[in-house]
Amino acid sequence: MSEITPDVIASHGFTEDEYEEVLRIMGREPNLTELGVFSVMWSEHCSYKSSKKWLKTLPTEAPWVICGPGENAGVIDIGDNQAVIFKMESHNHPSFIEPYQGAATGVGGIMRDVFTMGARPIANLNALRFGAPEHRKTRHLVAGVVAGIGDYGNCMGVPTVGGECEFHASYDGNILVNAMTVGLADAGNIFYSAAAGVGNPVVYVGSKTGRDGIHGATMASAEFCEDSEEKRPTVQVGDPFTEKLLLEACLELMATDAIVAIQDMGAAGLTSSSFEMASKGGVGIEMDLDQVPQREENMTAYEMLLSESQERMLMVLQPGKEKMARAVFEKWELDFAVVGTLTDTGRMVIRHQGEVVADLPIDPLASASPEYNRPWTPTPAAPAISPADVPAPDSLTGVLKTLIGTPDLCSKRWIWEQYDHMVMTDTIGRPGGDAALVRVHGTKKALAMSSDCTPRYCLADPVQGGRQTVAESWRNVTATGATPLAITDNMNFGNPEKPEIMGQFVGCIEGMREACMALDYPVISGNVSLYNETRGTAICPTPTIGGVGLIEDSAKAVDSAFPAEGQAIILIGETRGHLGSSLYLREIAGGEDGAPPPVDLAAERRNGDFVRGLILAGQATACHDLSGGGLAVALAEMAMAGDMGAAIEPANGDLPLHAWLFGEDQARYLLTVGDAESVLAAAAEAGVPAAVIGTTGAKELTLGKNETISVADLKTAHEVWLPGFMAAPDTFE
Amino acid sequence: MKAKVYVTLKIGVLDPQGKAVQHALHALGFEGVGDVRQGKFVEIELDETDRAQAERAVDEMCRQLLANTVIEDYSIDLED
Amino acid sequence: MKAAVIVFPAATSDRDTKVCLEQSTGKPVHMVWHGDTEIPDVDLIVLPGGFSYGDYLRCGAMASHSPIMKEVKSRAKQGVHVLGICNGFQILCESGLLPGVLMRNAGLKFICKDVDLRVENDTTPFTRGYGKGQAVRIPVSHHDGNYFADDAALEKLEDEGRVAFRYLANPNGSRADIAGILNDKGNVLGMMPHPERLADAQLGGTDGRPMFDALTEALS
User: Fold this and answer.
1) Which domains does chain C have, with CATH numbers?
2) B34: domain range?
3) Which helix (H) or strand (E) holds A646?
4) Which of A167, A465, B21, C68 is the most exposed place for a label (fewest CB within 10 A)?
5) Contact criterion met (CB below 8 Å) for C197 and C151
6) A731: which chain B residues are within 8 Å (Cβ-Cβ)?
7) CA–CA dist A703, A393 (Å, integer)
8) Contact B65/C150, CB-based, under 8 Å?
């Protein structure tokens, strides 16, 4: 009787049509091992079958882009023969099941993606989204995820310099852990994954293979169900010590001419890495599983091919370099094994214990991976909310104090103090500001990097939300003085088989595309995480954007702290008091409705370029982007960072004061300047709205008549929530 | 032969992890939980067949590496 | 002054320490692999911060048995100056060059932040660049920095003036707020804070710099 029963086919996640295609490609019934290979290669996680059609519409090119999406990570040119390699990737499902290991291996995986290409990782960021604080699992998940990220990155000696952390009930059963790594390489020494050279040895390096994470890629492509929490054995365990050795060994070997191609064994392990390498290079591959270093006894071919054991790489070497390469890896006490050879057959032939256990055509399998044009419905427009329709508060400073103490806006110090953010001694802009700033070692240059998303906007209006997310990333990088260069996108959505979810995806991509085009901010790498649903409830659409920019002279960079007394505070951009989908509405007025602020991309471009010019000319002494919570929150953040107050003279015109202070209009910045008149004149000339709204000084922030709050009080309100929340006794359900 | 080595903090040395576990057990409603000490458990496969030799060797391993006798005690179980 | 930095597997602050030493001495620093058995003729040996052997078993325990440590101990005995920072301090304790041990932080969490220290001994080449009682700001970055020694050992340290630095606000539960200690001859210093991380104004401070400058002056 065949081992391939309808149950086996279904449990591997194939639709009937997909299995028909398998039969057509194979020309016979596959065996279980072969079916397993098809299953992971065609999983949503590896094949992007629901998203491919739309991802293709994103701009991926610019004169400074060396390599766009499709490799382990994207590459940009930063001059002086230097390249920056970066990517963001999700580890959402594993982190929900086992937060410490799930988050740790997410960080390990993204760092491998970057150093596989020849870069030394120089910074990590992470974007975290948890369920409501009241949810019974939230505290446990925060503690585990943060410890897992910290322990892995810290041991690797790579600073974790920035990120974001928010809470919302839509993530109760489905948290998001998006990790980003930025690396630095020689532009002339970048490594790709396309295998080449028939007869060249295929080499396995790193940790031994165990039974960890079998079918993790399939798990990441299925909705969570009641029994997901029972799926613990599929979660991999990270070993940052081994990865640190792997990093150093790889970089050492990369300094020689031994490597033809190299690929990280990420999700779906040996299968996907060898398949991708062979498919990109148009070659065949023969592999002998008996040569694979094994941690456990009696592993089957199926298990070895699908294992997701961490800290492993596959390389194709130049002939005759095996001995030298082996010496490098043995010095670092890592396994090194020649497991195969490249062939000209176009087939992947796997042997185990003397028998052929899988024989698959590479091209047909790779090129025939399904691509769906899933039905989608546009998200209905949310009603516009006029500023006048939102009631004014009793106390503006009271509202401000509340807002900066809310879970989304409060200080995340409790988190980033658990991350080594200073190692490598180039972190000149530490966590907590707009974008982190990391020097390019040994040069005057620095990279600004930031992670952003506003899911509440994306939910209300995916197109505007997609635009806003890219625009905010661009603003955050701009606010340091850096020129934004490129982004990586981490698309976290619900079940794409539901038209309304697919509509969110399509809308966000459309908005992102427009913003990337208008801001010359191409997408160079990314990751898609779908099926983020539990019991039919989807997360808010969350297209997280990781942005990177360059400043040629890091001495010219500014941060957001009020730098000195008596500086004029200038508001750049137009303020219309937009309160729909704002934090004021959600946290103070108790509503989550309304259209999000519209994003005028021409204004974003004009205002941002103007602000960057002022910073580089030395005319702005501090700069901060305006986002959630609006003008008042940005002022408070600048005051807290500088430990200095300010007196604000509201310029609200016809607007209600609370809308002027808390509205979330886009394309805005706050600056402090010494010479306000020349800045205003320059702004007028450039067609950029600009107005002096106050002066720095003293120890209080004054927002108007009888509206004064001390910076010390603001700081207390800002710092107290997260440590208090985390210290509360666990409920241990 | 198999050696099972238990490494624990000496009495009198503060054990913050043990304290956290004790706290959590109380929170879970386990009444009557007193002092909790957290330690390490190391399992070692040995080629040695002579019990006394094995014991001496493992004791040496403990003193040199497995335990820090400034703060830790250890005990050894041998199994054939 | 000629200096060597020992590179353990998963050292992470080896380069940072090298950069900082080279800025003070103007000379290249020798990077010595932990598996080697010889160290060039140098005036200062630094055991840098990091996570040798992944901090598995106990921080510094396995590194203290690295082949190079025999040579480090023998040089220390001969009077060569040895500086252990963070993981280096843990290794020095595990290898017996310094008394006591670094335990898990009292808060159980990894902690990375600037802390204020008081200089308690300004008579050694390590600390001569500071004044006794001076407050200096130097970052910590560790999971296991909670210094423990028994009462007798602690009393001896205090009596002999071998506490080099003390925390002004104890971040990790260390006994007697100890951040750094000296050996009996004063040529071995172990400290949890990272002076190499705040020795550059662009990084937010330079209080670490006097340590490297003073060593350079004293040992040249």
Assistant:
1) 3-219 (3.40.50.880)
2) 2-79
3) strand A646-648
4) B21
5) no
6) 27
7) 14
8) no
